[in-house]
Design goal:
- The protein is mainly α and 189 residues long.
- The chain is rod-shaped and about 150 Å long.
- The longest helix has 80 residues.
- The N and C termini lie far apart (144 Å).
- The protein contains six helices and two strands.
- Helix 3 packs across helix 4.
- A two-stranded antiparallel ribbon has the order 1-2.
Length: 189
């Protein structure tokens, strides 16, 4: 393509890989940002090579996310700015919906920062409370352990007493004292 070449509508649409309707819309944005497109003898638009290059550049800006919309991309090119994402979003003449989104975004970011600081404070409070609860639980655990030991001690005493009584009973049986006689032994006496 030479700089002097100009293409008719269908040729330009084919070269850009867009439909005719899309090219008409892009041409309107181009004319708003730069200059009116030249026309042929019948009054139809003719697309010069430099216009096609600018249209391709504007589409690239939009596709890469460096412009909020195609209109913004053309205005960035007209000012000679290819725009980083921050420059495009924070420009003064941003469309109204984007400006509203930016205000909402800033409010949400502020609210998120506040919630984050509250969360940090709550985590600190939670850590302090956890330490206090653990200290309180450790003291009763000692008392509970003493109670468990007392219960075990009482249980062992009962077992020992029962074993001693059983041993005494067996000793007495072996000696024959207080030995109960079966009932049939009385019949023969």
């Amino acid at each position: 393509m030479t700089d002097q070449a100009a293409f008719h509508h269908s040729e330009a649409a084919t070269m850009l890989g867009v439909s005719s309707a899309t090219l008409r819309r892009l041409a309107k944005f181009y004319e708003d940002a730069f200059e009116p497109m030249p026309t042929d003898a019948r009054g139809g638009r003719v697309y010069p090579n430099h216009a096609l290059k600018r249209i391709q550049a504007a589409r690239a800006l939009f596709d890469e996310g460096r412009a909020a919309n195609l209109e913004t991309a053309f205005s960035l090119l007209a000012r000679g700015n290819t725009g980083s994402p921050d420059e495009v979003l924070f420009q003064a003449n941003a469309p109204e919906p984007i400006a509203q989104l930016l205000v909402e975004f800033r409010g949400m970011r502020h609210a998120l920062e506040q919630m984050s600081s509250r969360m940090d404070a709550l985590q600190d409070d939670n850590a302090q409370l956890r330490e206090q609860v653990l200290k309180q639980l450790e003291a009763p655990r000692d008392d509970a352990r003493e109670r468990e030991l007392q219960v075990e001690n009482a249980d062992l005493k009962q077992r020992n007493l029962a074993m001693l009584q059983e041993l005494e009973r067996r000793r007495q049986e072996a000696e024959g004292k207080d030995r109960p006689w079966p009932w049939w032994k009385f019949w023969g006496q």
